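User: Please fill in residues for this 245-position structure.
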């Protein structure tokens, strides 16, 4: 059986057990987004791929054939939990946060048009029950690193991308997740660091400098008064008798 090169379920962001109603509903939603007539988000290539995915999955016979011959990209890869501790009290929770960010970062980079990841997919990739992810997800959303859509799918935000890209060199275990534990990414400074000494999440400081306009105004008035109080040769002015009166 031919191995498919595109995961239609992943493209539609639906479960492999999704019913026909769900498939049609998601198709209509994405069709409105990617239709070439949409001046904002239209994408002819994505629209054609969407039509192909819908045609296959909405036909029972073609869907069965597709399911029988499809091999997902994650088949044969062990979940992250096989190499990373998600159960330890404090470090386990911190590792779960990093794992969620890593999974969403991969999707954001590889498929920027549809960066959403379902909770079921996060659960599968991590190999960790979703019941233990409630606090993790709450924290990341409150920090502004991820967002959650109405359909409960998650997306990495710009602050989340900044955190991943700036902290991967400081947190060896994050770098390991981003490189699948095989070979370090090009230019990674943490490739030779041991996978210990985990550091908690670092909040980047706000380096914005706001000038104090009132202080600046006072300085200008003080300088102007000093200039008026001196003559051009540097000696203090002697007030005239008329001015004194």
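Assistant: Residues filled in for all 245 positions:
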């Amino acid at each position: 059986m031919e191995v498919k090169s595109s995961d239609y379920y992943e493209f539609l962001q639906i479960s492999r057990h999704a019913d026909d109603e769900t498939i049609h509903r998601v198709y209509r939603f994405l069709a409105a987004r990617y239709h070439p007539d949409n001046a904002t988000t239209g994408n002819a290539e994505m629209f054609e791929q969407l039509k192909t995915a819908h045609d296959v999955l909405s036909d029972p016979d073609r869907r069965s054939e597709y399911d029988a011959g499809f091999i997902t990209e994650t088949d044969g890869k062990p979940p992250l939990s096989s190499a990373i501790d998600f159960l330890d009290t404090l470090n386990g929770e911190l590792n779960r946060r990093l794992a969620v960010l890593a999974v969403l970062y991969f999707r954001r980079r590889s498929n920027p048009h549809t960066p959403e990841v379902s909770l079921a997919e996060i659960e599968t990739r991590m190999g960790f029950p979703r019941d233990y992810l409630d606090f993790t997800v709450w924290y990341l959303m409150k920090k502004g690193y991820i967002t959650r859509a109405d359909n409960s799918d998650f997306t990495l935000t710009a602050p989340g991308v900044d955190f991943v890209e700036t902290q991967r060199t400081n947190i060896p275990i994050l770098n390991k997740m981003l490189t699948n534990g095989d070979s370090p990414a090009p230019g990674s400074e943490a490739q030779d660091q041991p996978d210990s000494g985990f550091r908690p999440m670092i909040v980047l400081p706000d380096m914005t400098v706001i000038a104090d306009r009132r202080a600046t105004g006072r300085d200008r008035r003080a300088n102007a008064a000093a200039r008026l109080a001196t003559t051009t040769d540097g000696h203090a002015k002697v007030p005239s008798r008329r001015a004194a009166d």
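For context: The mean pLDDT is 74.
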